[in-house]
Amino acid sequence: MQPFHDLSLTPATFRSVAAGIGFTEGPARSGTSDVLVTSMTRGLVYRVALSGDGAEEFAETGGGPNGLAVGTEGDLLVMQSGATVMPTRSAVPAQPGIQRIAADGTVSTVTTDVHSPSDGVLGPDGRLWFTDPSAHDLDSTTGTGAVRALDLSTGVMADVITGLAFPNGLAFAADGTRLFVAETGARWIRRYDLSGGAATPDGWIARMPEGHPDGLALDALGRVWVAGSTGANIVVFGTDGTVAGTIDFPAGHMVTSLCFAGEDLRTLVVTMPKGGQVLAAPVDCPGLPLPVMR
Description:
Blueprint: E1 15-18, E2 24-30, E3 34-39, E4 44-49, E5 55-60, E6 65-70, E7 76-80, E8 97-101, E9 107-111, E10 120-122, E11 128-132, E12 145-150, E13 157-164, E14 167-172, E15 178-183, E16 188-195, E17 198-207, E18 216-218, E19 224-227, E20 233-237, E21 243-248, E22 257-261, E23 267-272, E24 277-282
């Protein structure tokens, strides 16, 4: 097992930087001092200051915005569930699809040719890679969900991986040739080799000891940090796929997603829907920059 360089991390290490903003999801680094998060039950994207000064409304997407992906020109891409996952109190209608939020907060629709997108990231190839579950069954190990890649300039979309059991978080390895995908239903994270236009499982599998995997983030050591959703935990897997460490929150405190933020990517940001919270804690090992930032 690899050494876990953040052994001091406990629930008490985290501080609340925002609260009362609904079912929080999809944190994404925004500059060096704040993050953007979604509220699935309010149809809103909030900007949250890492200083703890609270949250301010950034854009109303309507529906149920889930994951966020940082764009290349100050824009943001939204995996919009269209309120198919849970009810929303937003009066703004939104179909399941991919939305774009411009730097000034203007929302537009990129495509609705999807099922119910969950999480996404702008890949090394410039395409938006996102998970698209066709169902949200926590107990099924088989499914018809997919990882899809959308060319934002042409609108061409490809199904890269199919037959997944509730695909959720995803993240690219440092060299961009491998992709980690959480299958919430199967309760594992699998790694895929990307070559010749195909994605092939390379045998690496990390199995959740407790809970169901949701959002993913990689650190500079290549470890995979996983939001354990129903397990009220964060699980860190070493490069060999074994558990390197866990952070266990009180029962009932679902952890939906996480990201590394701050100027040096040494702040771990976590979304926790109980209380509509966004939490932050310092970490010893910095996060791996997203492909768009490398």
